[in-house]
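Q: Hi! Curious about what STAS domain-containing protein looks like structurally. Here's the sequence.
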Amino acid sequence: MRFAVETLEIKGELTIFNVAGHKEKLLAALRANAALELNLAGVDEIDTAGLQLLILLKREASLTSKKLSFAMHSKPVLDLLELANLTTAFGDQLVLPQTEE
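A: Let's find out. The predicted structure is below.
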């Protein structure tokens, strides 16, 4: 069975200073959709509070049998996932940006 996937883009910071505002919006979107994709290309800063939110969203999706995927990870997101040794933990495809020569 295939579901229409709703895509949301997160832009700017995903840090302790604004994660609470993102949390309610993203949980509401998860509740409203059978399948949700979060585009993380616009995240220019993320800290452990932002990472905790991503983990919470994955857990809630699993508990409610929803499909949640993260896509287009920005460099700050990739760097934090690597630092936390979580690059494969979410099960999402990671597309690494080209390095400048």
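A: A fun detail: The chain has one domain: 5-83.
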